What does this fold into?
Amino acid sequence: MDPYHWNWERSAGEFDIPHNFKFGHICDLPCGKGQKWNLGGVGNAIAGGCHMSAIHVYAGGQPVQLTGGGISLTG
It folds into this structure.
């Protein structure tokens, strides 16, 4: 470690994930009164006007930590 050249000490952090893509969407289900599938009174009350949503998260992996190993000659 050199206190005069701190920029030589740079590295990727343990939790650094540089590539991160998030995508979310919402879809209306085609069931209910006035839609493609009319489910009747009870069906429209339960499932009419429902939405379906999803969130997709795609991320690169965490950095690999390279460490020096030693040989243990015990026993």
User: Anything to note?
Assistant: Helices lie at 40-47. The radius of gyration is 28 Å.
